[in-house]
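Quick one: structure for this chain?
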Amino acid sequence: MSDPVGETAPTAVCVGEAMIMFAGDAGGLLEDVETFRRSVGGAECNVAGGLAALGVATSWISRLGDDGFGRHVLRDLQARGVEIGGVEEDPERPTALYVKHSADGRSRMHYYRSGSAASAMSPAFLDRPEVRARLQSAELVHTTGITAAISATAAEMLERLAALRGTYGFKLSVDLNWRPALWRDKDPEPLWRLLRAADVVLIGADEAQVFAGTSDPAELRELLGPRSTLVMKNDAHTALVLEPDGRRTEVPALTVEVVEPVGAGDAFAAGFLAGTLQGLPMEQRLRQGHLGAAAVLAVPEDHAAPLDPAVRKTLLNCSDEEWAATRVGPAGVKLP
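Got it. Here's what it folds into:
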């Protein structure tokens, strides 16, 4: 029997939803926008693309509609170096969409994901030979609270995924990605269980305050339990890691000329997780996360072209003073 993973087994697997994103080319009310640019979005596929760009063999696993939008998602991810052999196509349910436009100087998102192919993921999805083989080969599996929220069966799937950690031997990474609208009238307890089962938890200080009632790392540690490496991002200011043994590492964010914030958290996750898999020191893991986030903040899309490897290496190894003097914007990186 042939290997269902193919020739190259993934080091990292990302499990979650992908969507087609339509961005309005002009500001103002949605009803007045006539032209939209198409791209691919979705937290876990953004992370998958970011990991692949940093040299990590990465698979993205999900369900897509058997439609043109789904085929575009697959083509986009393949072009970015992501392996997609574990994706299941659904002949009945569509690929999810969302629309982004600017109004009053702010980006506004409108989601069309109800009844999508991804929302039909369930615990049985993990038993597909193509999925099982990729999970068994992975060192790290990443997902987010968004996938836990898109349907009850998807939440059940992630609970089973967490239970497979010990069986298959991978580390589980979970980015909270708290979306209150998705959890309206739902009990968030499945998300709490997922976070407490994770080996790596990524969380923003602002969303932690809303979700957990605190943004204090020590208090979050008490709420989440002792097992995880807790990574907390404080918007444009800093990111810190609190390890299970109590060690704390903190790195300030870069100065960025921001074009669009959507996707920056996923890029940070990809940079940090790639650094984890590559065995980088904790400070460099955080720096690599900041570099990924900065690159995405400086473009209008949800993901950005990777930084030149020489520039990335320079910034991973520069002094604190040189790091603080670095600037990132639409024109690229300006080193001190």
